[in-house]
Amino acid sequence: MPLLQSTVYRLEPSLDGERLSVTAPPAEAAAASDDTVMASLVNALNDTYNTKAKGWGRFAEQGEQAGPLVAWLSAYQADEQTFAQLANAMAERLAQTLQGQLSVGGYLVIAHLRQGDTETLLMALIHQREGIGFNDAHQAVPAAQLNTSQLTLAARINLTQWQSGVESTQYVSFLKDRGGKKLADGVAALLGMEEGIDAPAETRTLLKAFSDYVEKEDLDDDASREKTDTLVDYANEQLRRGEPMTLEELSELVDEKQPKAFYDHIRNADYGLSPEIPPDKRTISQFRRFTGRAGGVSISFDSHLLGSSIEYDETQDRLIIKQVPKQLKEQLAKRKE
């Protein structure tokens, strides 16, 4: 992933925790395409960011949420200001926004990168931790390390999608960890954005639509398991790449012989899903199907239903289904007639 520009700032809270100082790099950051170490760091941050829970949205056009970032980005894209000027403005405004919120100092990395035809702007705060390394004499010595696997706050802007003019609610994202709500709110304020999609809720609705589709098609155990694996593998691959799931693309993968079948099912049932859905890692990781066949009985259900509409009594070796599928109930009712 080519790194076009990058720079790093030091954010340091005061002893009383009420103020946050910003230390800029000694010299203006130059194009970093030949800096392999910095490129590796930014790629590692980008990969970590892809796997984290995020809020998604777009720049607010007016009102209290709108901020100056859009104007700064427009000036940078038009070559009316340098990357260093853009980064300085972002770092200073973030420090003002997070006054009293940051308890531990860290390094703010701001990078402009390109992947394929897409350009993005990544901002991430990382902390340094003490570690151990070896010197030239093969002796163990203290060695500071950057903790790239844990981010305090981060945000990413898809510059290409933003400038394309295509109506979208997902070109701005920011880290949205449950334990860091105030920091997340501060980043959202810096971005001047409005959230446009609830990734966990959308992912849950997609999985519900998939479960309904599998039930409607009355698939056997092997086919059901294969399609579930296809969905989960696709979602995890999009997570790794930091890209949303596309309903049409997913439909083609779920059923190659009928590439529009799952997509038509979603649209005809009116689940209210967006054409593109950022996958939620936690929701996806909980989604698998349990299947079993023995003595003329075949059972298949989504793992997330266990403990809610389906219960397993291990001591009695019983499976309790609280919500019997409509189709099955109709068959059982006809049997009594």
From TrEMBL:
Keywords: Cytoplasm. GO terms for molecular function: double-stranded DNA binding; single-stranded RNA binding. GO terms for cellular component: bacterial nucleoid. Its main location: cytoplasm. It comes from the Bacteria. Signal peptide: none annotated. It is found in: Cytoplasm, Nucleoid. Pfam families: NA37. InterPro entries: Nucleoid_associated_NdpA. Belongs to the YejK family. PANTHER family: NUCLEOID-ASSOCIATED PROTEIN YEJK, PTHR38772. This is Nucleoid-associated protein. It comes from Vreelandella aquamarina.
